[in-house]
Amino acid sequence: GAFGPDTAITAPLLRMLESRFSPRPENAWRSPVLRSSHAGHPLLDLQRSLTDSSSTAEGLALALLTPTDPDLVCEHLLRRSPAKRDLTAATAYSLASYFGWQCPRNRTKYFRRLLTAADPVIRVAGAVYLATEDSTEGMQSLRSMTSLPGFAGRWASLTLARRGDRTTADSLMTWMESPASGSQAYWHHMLNQRLQFLTLLSNSARSSHVPDPPYVDPELINSGSKEYRKSIRRLQKWWADVRERIVLADPWLPAFASRGVD
Fold first, then answer.
1. Alpha-carbon Rg of the chain, whole angstroms?
2. How far apart are CA 129 and CA 108, in angstroms?
3. 80, 100, 228, 245: least buried by Cβ within 10 Å?
4. What string of DSSP letters covers 23-45?
5. What does pLDDT average to in each consecutive run of 10 residues of the chain (262 residues)?
């Protein structure tokens, strides 16, 4: 398939699956490590930390407050300043994804609210997780976001492709050619998106009974090297040959959706 015999991607994909299927905690304060981080006046400290986007405390506060006060966290995400650098785009993705994963109640309501967030990455997160609660409404919102620049638009496109949209897969094929740049966190998120797309193509080819996609060396992804560009051109030719016969389908999607996870 797209990965051939190489097992370089096995471990990170397994870790991703393990995290997606771990239970949603009823009360994050049960963790003694996290609880001790804000001893004394925890609620006040957490509320202050939530607005401190320059500190790692923002992530800790969001993780602790999401199960107990999702309304406060949602309001914070709505107002959070749009990412001006790739590093903050990766951070917005992580924060909004955690909220989408762990939001304990009124999920559809909160995800609809995120569609109006100041940050486009957080708007896409709202649409992605809305699709886990209301597929029709979530997909409609995602289609309006594929033209967003950078990470946000690619995330919307990949989510639609995983749900069978071949048109967004066309644009992702073009994006696969470009070299990655930016912070380490952003580079990692781009690598993860590309691995997800290649996995989707490989699984879809097998279930659609069309030829497997050509091999793409995981070690070269994001490199922009001559060999990598050649492998992507072979992949694009394969896509042109099978496009009208393949049914894009993520085999993990039903299991994820049943747990409210993307």
1. 19
2. 8
3. 245
4. PPPS-GGG-HHHHHTT-SSHHHH
5. 47 48 47 44 63 70 89 93 69 91 94 97 96 94 94 94 95 86 72 92 97 92 86 96 96 80 76
